[in-house]
Write a structure and sequence with these properties.
By secondary structure, the chain is mainly α. 85% of the residues lie in helices and 0% in strands.
């Protein structure tokens, strides 16, 4: 009974458009920025690898 009530409330919250306010969106943006700063070197290395592969394939076509 308690589990059904909890599931019902979660579904209501998800379907409620009032739940996605400005504050929640701002918090998500802040979290994404922090994650990007924390993993900056890994992201940069991955992008360099992708760009190098693309460049190599383009040079192979020419």
């Amino acid at each position: 009974m308690l589990l059904n009530s909890l599931i019902y409330r979660v579904k209501q919250y998800i379907n409620n458009e009032k739940g996605s306010g400005v504050v929640e969106i701002a918090i998500i943006i802040v979290i994404l920025i922090v994650l990007a700063l924390l993993f900056q070197t890994e992201i940069t290395a991955a992008l360099h690898t992708i760009i190098d592969k693309i460049t190599t394939q383009i040079e192979g076509i020419s």
